[in-house]
Amino acid sequence: SHFGSYPCPQEGRAELVQAARRGPRRASHMANAGVWEELDEFFGWTTTTTTPPLDEDLGLGWGAFYGVVCFSAFSQLISMAALFAAAVSGARRALRQRTGKALRVRKPVAIIVPCYLPNEAPIIKDTIRHMLGATTRIDSLTIYLVYNTPRDMPIEAELAQMAKEVQRPGQNLVVQRVHGSGSKAENLNFILPEITAPFCAIYDADHHPDPDSLAMAVWHLKDTGCDCVQGSTYIRSGCALLRWFICAEFFVNYFVVLPTMQVVAGTGFFGGANGIWRTSSLQRLRFDEAALTEDIECFARAVTQHGLRFEFLPECCSGELLPAGFRALWRQRLRWAMGWDQVTLRHAAAFWAPHLTLRRRLGLSYIFFCRWLTQTCALFIVLLNARAALVSLLTERPSDHSEPVLVPEGIEDLQLVSFGAYLSFIAFALVRASLRRSLVLLLGLAMYFALMPAVVLWNSFLMVASLLRVSTGNVGSWVVTTRAHAAPTSMKVPLLKADELAAKVSGWQRRLAALILAVAFAISGMLVGAVVGTMVGQRTVVRPLWGWVPFGIGATTTTVTDGRVVARCMAAGASIALLVLYAIVRWRGSAIAARRRRGAAKAADTGATNSDKEPALLAA
Questions:
Q1: How far is 55 from 52, CA to CA, in rounded Å?
Q2: pLDDT one-digit tens code per residue, 351-395
Q3: Are 411 and 392 in contact (CB under 8 A)?
Q4: Which residues contact 475 (CB under 8 A, 6 or more apart)?
Q5: Is 455 helix (H, G, I), strand (E, B) or coil?
Q6: Sign of the CA dihedral 479, 229, 504, 371?
Q7: Closest to 514 measured CA to CA, from 600, 620, 614, 589
Q8: pLDDT tens per residue, range 157-186
Q9: Per-residue pLDDT, 302
Q10: 560 sits in which H/E element
Q11: Contact at 8 Å (CB) between 62 and 56?
């Protein structure tokens, strides 16, 4: 009847026939919509244009998008359950600390402060004074300041004089220069055999630990029987806005994300500074002097080779300085990202060693391998699901399906669930921060969550840049992070290149590392494709008032994301990323082969020169 009653453009008949098969009400709405659009165009009453409604059937494109959204929502639900378990554990720990005996440590404790003197000369004396004067509830404390410097400096005499001065009862300061050292790892390896205290803590030269944090961590070591406790850090000085923002980022990571990760993975990890160890466990290890992140590399070997246990203790806090500018911050974060990727590729085979329990294998795989998937899920949660859920909540959904369906209802419901879990995550972080009674922290969290889309894009860009540099072998040198209020430096330490890294593994381990790198590249390509698809796949739909009011009177405009476009862009991004990786591998292979040919030719020339000199030497 509608075909006979109303005019229908020839190009729209096929779509109208499909709608008629779905039901007369859908066809009636589409035919009427066609009439009003033609009348609007004929009389020139409105210039509003609409794009065709999205198909409500789950085809291949929507199905792929549905799978990613479903995976993101499912991972959020698991994380929320783990977050609840971590919150219960933290509440019990806080209750024990308040109702139990005073956290006083009777046994000796050592603090190790590795230092590169030209960079940290302006701040190291304040750090030592703070540790000697502010650390409480430790009966016997020895601070080991181990430093390296390429040249003699006047501050060395001042540090030696500080060591000779009379300290408070039970406190000692040992100042030791490590000649020939070029890294933090070498300084630590030098001093570790000399530590006799049963517990030791490692702090960077800019760290000012809270007065009770060290005693709290030692008691946690005793209570849990673990080998290492990793505390949290915050920014204690620097530009106000940037300090608030990074403080909020650290707070979310240490107080929300990492405790959740520990529940899921069954283990924490050692993050370098503000790590408190049992000395006997730490002395079984050596820090890799050529690693970008010697702390994460040490953690991987400690778990896979020695079976050590790690836990997070966010209440054990220590303040540090901001990096001196955006360039220093970029270098620091990129080094962290490349260090994680290097450790993942180097120790991938060891994560599934036969002597490890199944829980330990799954936990290590979650920590190291799922980082890329987690970043992709974060992109969907923050950029897609949250926005789509807000649009859905603010826009009235037709109850009788008289209007075209913009997004399949299953996807829309999953996005609402994902958005609810995301709001719960934000609420938990705000409640956790309110317990610390810090207005500055709450302001920083408000700014951090308001800029969360930018944070997700920043971390995604870091991940892609890290994979590109690690795969090409262009990891650069270990550049000391210049801190605010510290002297600028240009110290660079040679690092393990990609071909040297490959030389340390062979056979199936190398093939496994190549497979992991390919998966990481594919996921990164999907990540970039999702960002592009989100921008390209925007669709604007104009809804008439009450579903029938003509001429655009009271009409509302709704913008949605076409999941089919996002899915196609993700597939294209993964394909392009794999092609880029293939080109990089071919280029690296050619470069290494050319380098070997040059080395062989140089060796042959050297041998020929020596053979020409032998008769003359014999005659002489």
A1: 9
A2: 988 899 999 999 999 999 888 888 888 888 887 777 777 776 766
A3: no
A4: 292, 338, 342, 469, 495, 496, 497, 498
A5: helix
A6: negative
A7: 589
A8: 999 999 988 678 889 999 999 998 888 899
A9: 95
A10: strand 556-561
A11: no
Q: Which two tokens stand for residue 575?
A: 């394909």
Number of C-beta neighbours around residue 322 at 10 A: 20
Give the contacts of 516 (CB within 8 A, at least 6 positions apart).
Answer: 344, 345, 348, 369
- Name the region of 554 (left: φ>0; alpha: ψ -120 to 50; beta: rest): left
- Residue 573 CB contacts under 8 Å (≥ 6 apart), including other chains: 525, 526, 527, 528, 529, 530, 532
The average pLDDT across 502-506 equals 45
Mode of pairing for the β-strands spanning 228-237 and 171-177:
unpaired
Mean pLDDT of 307-317: 94
- pLDDT per residue as tens digits for the range 402-447: 444 556 777 778 888 888 899 999 999 999 999 888 889 999 999 9
| Alpha-carbon 370 to chain mean position | 11
Strand partners, 143: 111, 173
**Which of 276, 269, 300, 274 is closest to 287 using CA atoms?**
300
Average pLDDT over residues 11-39: 46
Instruction: Give the predicted TM-score (pTM) of the model.
Output: 0.78
CA distances to 263, 303, 307, 393, 550 from 310, rounded to whole Å, are 12, 9, 10, 43, 66
- The total number of residues written for the chain in this structure: 620
490 burial via Cβ count (<10 Å: 0-12, 13-18, 19+): exposed
